[in-house]
C-alpha cells in the first residue's frame, strides 16, 4: 500500500450514529415552538372571551340590582291605588292582609316590611310622619309611632317621592329594628311612594302637597338583596363593590363581596340609577376565571406529539430510551383522559356524586352537587335522603343488583332547603375499588309549579276558597265513602246572598268583590275544622259539614246565616248589611247522587228566598219540592237550548179593524223551544222556570238580537213589514244595560227604530214604575214604539196608565173572550179604548177567536186585533226549510 493512499473513513460511522439524537432534538425544538405558537393564539383568544364575559357580567349587574327595587315600587303603587280608591276602614289587620296578598317576601330578597306613615304636625309645629301600620308587625314593633322625620335619608326620599309621585329610594342607613342585633348586616334602605287622600290621582306638585295623606315605604336589607340579585355567574366570576354616590361617607358603601385591591386588574365601572339615587358598581375578576382546558390540551398534546416524535427518533439509538418514552406517553394520555372526565362532570347541571361502596361515604361531588348540597365529602350517601328508610333501600338495592332508579321524586337534604330530585344509582369500579355513582336532576321548580297549578285549578282566585269543581269532587268522594264504609252522615248547604246585585249596581263590581272576600273570611271563622267551604260562582257558596246530625246541621247553618247578617260592609262612605238564604240537605241515607243533592239544596235555598229571605230551609220531599225540581229541569233544558241555538220564533199578524185602514203588515213574535227529541214546546211550559231561575234576560236578548239580524226574513212580505212586536220580561227591564243593548242592535243591523215595537206587561210596568218609565222614555226618544200588554189584568190600571208614555194599549184577552155575553167586559173595553184614544195611543184586542167578536170590537172603536180567528202563528221565514214550511219534527 502506498504511503499517500487515503486512510479509511472510520469517522463516518460515529457521525451517523450521533446524527439520530441531533434530529430528535431538532424535531423536539420545532414541535415545541409550534406548540408555543398555537398556545399563544389560544391564550389570546381565551383572554378576549374572558374580557367579553367580564364586560357582559358588568353590564348585567345594574339591571339585576334594579329588579327587586322596581318590584318594591310596584307593590307600593298597588297599595297607593287602594288608598286612592277610598279604603276608609284601613287598620292593622287589613294592612296585614294586603301585605300577604302582595307576597313581597317571595320576590324581594332581603325584604323586611311594608309600612304606612301618617302625615301630621307635632307640638312644635313641625311636620311629622309617624309609622301607623307596619306589616309584618312581629319583629318590627319598634317602628310603630316612629317619626320618619328623624331620619334625614328617609325624609329626603319622602319629599322627592311626594312632589314627583314616583318611587324614591333612600340612601343606605342602619335599620332601626336591627340595631345591636346584626352588626354586620343591619344596613338597609327604603323605597317610598306618597299616599294621597281618596280621589283622582293629583297631577301637579301643589295638588300633591295639599292632598298628601302620608307615605308608603318598603324596607329592604342591603346584604341579602344584593347577594340574591347578583347570585349566579356575576358573583361566581366577579368580586363586586357598590357605593352610593350621594350618601354620607360613613354609609356610602352599599355592598362589598371582597376588599378592593390596591390595583385591581380589569376593573369594570358601572352605574345604576333608581329612585333619584346613583350607585357606582366596581367589578373585578376573581383570581381564576376562564376555561383553559383547550390551552392545556394544546400544550400537553403538542408537547406530547413533539416528544413522541423525538423519542421515536431517539429510540433508534437505544431501546431502553424508547421504552421509557413509551411509558411516559401512556402516562400523559391517562392524565389527559382523567382531566377531561373530571372537567365534563364539573360542567354537568345534574348532581353527580361518587361514594366508596365499602363504607358508603361520598368521595367526590361535582360543582352542581356542591352548590346544591354543600360540602358533603365524607358524608354517608344514604344520609342525603330525607327518608332514611328509602336511602338505605336505594343503597342496598344498588349493591345487590348493580343499579337503582327512582320511580317518583323524593326529597334530598339540601344546603339551604329540601330538594325534590329524580335520581339513579349504579355500581362502577375505580382503581379496582367498587364505588357507587349517583346522578340526580333537581325537580324542585317543576314540582312547585305543578303544585301551584293544581292549587289554582281547585281554588277560587278572588276568595281563596275551593271552587265549584273541587267542591263537587269532594262531595262525590264523600258520597262514595259514605256508601262504601257507612260513615257518619254529613250535611250539604247551599248559601245564596240576598240582594247582592244591588251592591254591584250601586257601588260597582270592585265593591262586590271586596264584600265576597270579607264574607268568605267571616264564614271561615264560624265553620269547624274539617268542614269544606267553597265559592260555587257569583254570590253562591257551598258548605260540606261532616259528622253531623240534623240538629247539629241546623245549628251550624244558623250560625253561618247569623254571621253573614252581622257583617257590615263599608265602601266609599256607604255601609251595607247583607243576608243569605241557605238550603240545607242532610245526607244520612245511601243511594244519593251528586245531581240529586245539588238539586235538593238549590230547591231548599229557593224555598228560603220565597219565604222571605235571610233564613234556613231544610229540603223536604213534598209536592212543592217536586214542582220546583221539574222547573229546574226545564231551566236546564232552556240553558242547553240557548247554547245550542234551539229556540224558535213564530209570528202572529195584527190586523187593522177600520174599514178604510191602510193595508199594512204588523206582527208579534212568539217564542218556542225545540226539545232534545226534536219536538216543539210551547212557552207556557218553560217560561215559569225561565223567570224563576233568572234566564229571561238571556232569552229576551236572544230574541231581540235574532229578530233584528233577520228582520227582512221574518215575514213573507220581506222588507215591507211595517212593525215587529217583541215582549220584554220584568227581569230584562231591571237590567241597566237593556236600552243600550237594544239601541246598539238596531244600529248594527240598520233597522229603523220605528219598525220595532216593544211590549211590556201591565204587571211588570207597575212593579217598578220609575225604572220602567226611564227605559221607555229612552227607547221612545230613539224612535221605538212601546206597547202596554195584557192591560186590565192588573190592579189600579187606569191610574198607572196616566203616567206611562206608551204608543199602543193591548187589552187583556180575558175581556175580549167574554165580550159577547159579559156587559162588564164590554164596558171595560169601551173605557180602555176611549182613554187610549184620549192619550193618542192605538188600542189592540187580543185573543180574538171568532168573527162575531170582530164586529163588536169595531163598534167600540178598537183599532186592531189579533187571534186565531184572524191568523194562526207561523214559523218565521228564515227558520223554515226550502219548501217554505217549518222543518218536520
Which helices and strands, and how do they pair?
Blueprint: H1 12-84, H2 92-102, H3 104-107, E1 111-121, E2 127-135, H4 152-164, E3 168-169, E4 173-174, E5 187-196, H5 205-210, E6 212-221, H6 222-229, H7 233-237, E7 238-244, E8 253-256, E9 268-274, E10 277-285, H8 293-315, H9 319-347, E11 351-356, E12 362-365, H10 367-373, H11 388-401, E13 403-405, E14 410-412, E15 419-430, E16 433-442, H12 444-458, H13 468-485, E17 490-498, H14 500-507, H15 509-526, E18 532-537, E19 540-546, H16 550-566, E20 568-571, E21 574-577, E22 579-587, H17 594-610, E23 616-618, H18 623-643, E24 647-656, E25 666-674, E26 680-681, H19 683-692, H20 696-709, E27 723-728, H21 730-733, H22 738-749, E28 756-761, H23 762-767, H24 769-782, E29 785-791, H25 797-801, E30 808-811, H26 813-817, H27 823-838, E31 842-845, H28 851-860, E32 864-865, E33 874-875
Protein name: Diguanylate cyclase
Keywords: Membrane, Transmembrane, Transmembrane helix
Domain GGDEF: 488-621
As residue ranges, the low-confidence spans are 1-19
Overall pLDDT: 82
Q: Tally the helices: what do you get?
A: 28
Tally of individual domains: 4
Helix content: 40-55%
Largest sheet: 8 strands, mixed, barrel
Within CATH, the superfamily of the largest domain carries the name EAL domain
Global structural class: alpha+beta
Strand order of the largest sheet: 24-25-27-28-29-30-31-32
DSSP strand count: 33
Portion of residues in beta strands equals 15-25%
Distance between the termini: 142 Å
Shape label: elongated
Multimerization status: single chain
CATH C-level name of the largest domain: Alpha Beta
- Give the CATH topology of the largest domain: TIM Barrel
CATH second-level architecture of the largest domain = Alpha-Beta Barrel
Amino acid at each position: 500500500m502506498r504511503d499517500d493512499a487515503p486512510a479509511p473513513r472510520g469517522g463516518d460511522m460515529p457521525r451517523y450514529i450521533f446524527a439520530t439524537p441531533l434530529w430528535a432534538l431538532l424535531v423536539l425544538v420545532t414541535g415545541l415552538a409550534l406548540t408555543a405558537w398555537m398556545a399563544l393564539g389560544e391564550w389570546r383568544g381565551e383572554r378576549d372571551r374572558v374580557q367579553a364575559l367580564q364586560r357582559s357580567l358588568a353590564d348585567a349587574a345594574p339591571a339585576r340590582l334594579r329588579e327587586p327595587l322596581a318590584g318594591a315600587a310596584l307593590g307600593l303603587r298597588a297599595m297607593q291605588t287602594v288608598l286612592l280608591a277610598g279604603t276608609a276602614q284601613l287598620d292593622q289587620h287589613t294592612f296585614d292582609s294586603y301585605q300577604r296578598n302582595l307576597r313581597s317576601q317571595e320576590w324581594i330578597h332581603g325584604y323586611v316590611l311594608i309600612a304606612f306613615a301618617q302625615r301630621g304636625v307635632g307640638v312644635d309645629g313641625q311636620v311629622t310622619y309617624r309609622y301607623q301600620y307596619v306589616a309584618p308587625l312581629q319583629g318590627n314593633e319598634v317602628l310603630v309611632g316612629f317619626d320618619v322625620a328623624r331620619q334625614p335619608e328617609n325624609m329626603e326620599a319622602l319629599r322627592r317621592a311626594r312632589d314627583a309621585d314616583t318611587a324614591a329610594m333612600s340612601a343606605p342607613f342602619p335599620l332601626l329594628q336591627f340595631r345591636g342585633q346584626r352588626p354586620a348586616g343591619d344596613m338597609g334602605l327604603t323605597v317610598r311612594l306618597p299616599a294621597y287622600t281618596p280621589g283622582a290621582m293629583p297631577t301637579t306638585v301643589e295638588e300633591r302637597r295639599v292632598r298628601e295623606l302620608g307615605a308608603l315605604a318598603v324596607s329592604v336589607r342591603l346584604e341579602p338583596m344584593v347577594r340574591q340579585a347578583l347570585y349566579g355567574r356575576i358573583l361566581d366570576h366577579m368580586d363586586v363593590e357598590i357605593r352610593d354616590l350621594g350618601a354620607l361617607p360613613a354609609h356610602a358603601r352599599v355592598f362589598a363581596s371582597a376588599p378592593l385591591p390596591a390595583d385591581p386588574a380589569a376593573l369594570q365601572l358601572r352605574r345604576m340609577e333608581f329612585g333619584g339615587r346613583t350607585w357606582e358598581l366596581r367589578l373585578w375578576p376573581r383570581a381564576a376565571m376562564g376555561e383553559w382546558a383547550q390551552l392545556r390540551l394544546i400544550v400537553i398534546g403538542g408537547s406530547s406529539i413533539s416528544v413522541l416524535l423525538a423519542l421515536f427518533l431517539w429510540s433508534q439509538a437505544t431501546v431502553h430510551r424508547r421504552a421509557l418514552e413509551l411509558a411516559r406517553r401512556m402516562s400523559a394520555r391517562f392524565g389527559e383522559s382523567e382531566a377531561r372526565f373530571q372537567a365534563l362532570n364539573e360542567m354537568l347541571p345534574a348532581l353527580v356524586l361518587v361514594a366508596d361502596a365499602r363504607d358508603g361515604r361520598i368521595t367526590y361531588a361535582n360543582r352542581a352537587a356542591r352548590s346544591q348540597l354543600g360540602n358533603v365529602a365524607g358524608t354517608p350517601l344514604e344520609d342525603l335522603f330525607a327518608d332514611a328508610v328509602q336511602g338505605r333501600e336505594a343503597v342496598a338495592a344498588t349493591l345487590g343488583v348493580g343499579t337503582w332508579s327512582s320511580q317518583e321524586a323524593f326529597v334530598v337534604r339540601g344546603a339551604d332547603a329540601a330538594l325534590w330530585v329524580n335520581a339513579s344509582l349504579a355500581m362502577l369500579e375505580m382503581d379496582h375499588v367498587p364505588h357507587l355513582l349517583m346522578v340526580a336532576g333537581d325537580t324542585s321548580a317543576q314540582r312547585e309549579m305543578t303544585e301551584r297549578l293544581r292549587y289554582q285549578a281547585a281554588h277560587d282566585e278572588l276568595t281563596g276558597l275551593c271552587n265549584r269543581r273541587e267542591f263537587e269532587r269532594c262531595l262525590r268522594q264523600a258520597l262514595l265513602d259514605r256508601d262504601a264504609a257507612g260513615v257518619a252522615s254529613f250535611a250539604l248547604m247551599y248559601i245564596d246572598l240576598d240582594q247582592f246585585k244591588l251592591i254591584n249596581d250601586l257601588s260597582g263590581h270592585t265593591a262586590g268583590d271586596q264584600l265576597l272576600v270579607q264574607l268568605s273570611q267571616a264564614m271561615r271563622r264560624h265553620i269547624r275544622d274539617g268542614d269544606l267551604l267553597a265559592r260555587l260562582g257569583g254570590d253562591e257558596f257551598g258548605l260540606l259539614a261532616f259528622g253531623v246530625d240534623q240538629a247539629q246541621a241546623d245549628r251550624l247553618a244558623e250560625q253561618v246565616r247569623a254571621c253573614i247578617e252581622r257583617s257590615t260592609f263599608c265602601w266609599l262612605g256607604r255601609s251595607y248589611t247583607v243576608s243569605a238564604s241557605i238550603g240545607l240537605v242532610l245526607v244520612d241515607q245511601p243511594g244519593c247522587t251528586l245531581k240529586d243533592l245539588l238539586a235538593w239544596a238549590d230547591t231548599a235555598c229557593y224555598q228560603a228566598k220565597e219565604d222571605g229571605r235571610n233564613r234556613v230551609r231544610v229540603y223536604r220531599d213534598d209536592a212543592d219540592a217536586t214542582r220546583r225540581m221539574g222547573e229546574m229541569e226545564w231551566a236546564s233544558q232552556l240553558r242547553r237550548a240557548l247554547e245550542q241555538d234551539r229556540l224558535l220564533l213564530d209570528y202572529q199578524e195584527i190586523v187593522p179593524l177600520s174599514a178604510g185602514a191602510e193595508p199594512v203588515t204588523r206582527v208579534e213574535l212568539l217564542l218556542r223551544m225545540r226539545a232534545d227529541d226534536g219536538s216543539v214546546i210551547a212557552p207556557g211550559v218553560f217560561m215559569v222556570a225561565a223567570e224563576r231561575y233568572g234566564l229571561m234576560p238571556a232569552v229576551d236578548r236572544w230574541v231581540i238580537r235574532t229578530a233584528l239580524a233577520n228582520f227582512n226574513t221574518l215575514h213573507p212580505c220581506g222588507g215591507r213589514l211595517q212593525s215587529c212586536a217583541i215582549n220584554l220580561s220584568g227581569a230584562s227591564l231591571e237590567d241597566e244595560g237593556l236600552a243600550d243593548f237594544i239601541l246598539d242592535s238596531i244600529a248594527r243591523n240598520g233597522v229603523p227604530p220605528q219598525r220595532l215595537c216593544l211590549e211590556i206587561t201591565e204587571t211588570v210596568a207597575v212593579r217598578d214604575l220609575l225604572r220602567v218609565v226611564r227605559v221607555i222614555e229612552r227607547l221612545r226618544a230613539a224612535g221605538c214604539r212601546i206597547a202596554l200588554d195584557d192591560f186590565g189584568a192588573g190592579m189600579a190600571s187606569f191610574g198607572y196608565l196616566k203616567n206611562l208614555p206608551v204608543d199602543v194599549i193591548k187589552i187583556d184577552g180575558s175581556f175580549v173572550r167574554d165580550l159577547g155575553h159579559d156587559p162588564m167586559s164590554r164596558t171595560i173595553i169601551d173605557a180602555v179604548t176611549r182613554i187610549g184614544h184620549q192619550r193618542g195611543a192605538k188600542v189592540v184586542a187580543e185573543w180574538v177567536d171568532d168573527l162575531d167578536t170582530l164586529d163588536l170590537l169595531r163598534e167600540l172603536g178598537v183599532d186592531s186585533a189579533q187571534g186565531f180567528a184572524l191568523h194562526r202563528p207561523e214559523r218565521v221565514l228564515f227558520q223554515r226549510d226550502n219548501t217554505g214550511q217549518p222543518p218536520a219534527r
